[in-house]
Design goal:
0% strand, mainly alpha, elongated
Length: 88
């Protein structure tokens, strides 16, 4: 489970790099303020990849250290709590 989450986090990192570049170029316009907005949006999205890559590294390291059962237990408790919140 941890390795799957690690791959998802890494994939989100690469996706956010592409989204940053895409947002920067697709939002550009003829007006200078539109270009400034496009640049700010691209930079904002560009801040996400390092967070996703760090999370992926942590998840892979936890898997390597043998914490898979701890993660499964944690997710089971989270699912139980969510079902309690939905029903009550």
């Amino acid at each position: 489970m941890l390795d799957k989450l690690g791959y998802i986090a890494a994939g989100l990192g690469f996706t956010s790099i592409a989204a940053s570049v895409t947002a920067w170029y697709t939002e550009k316009g003829s007006d200078e303020s539109e270009n400034a907005h496009a640049e700010r949006t691209g930079i904002f999205i560009g801040l996400w990849p390092q967070t996703f890559f760090a999370l992926a590294m942590i998840l892979f390291k936890l898997k390597e250290m043998g914490h898979e059962k701890d993660a499964q237990r944690l997710f089971k408790k989270m699912e139980e709590r969510l079902s309690e919140l939905r029903s009550g």
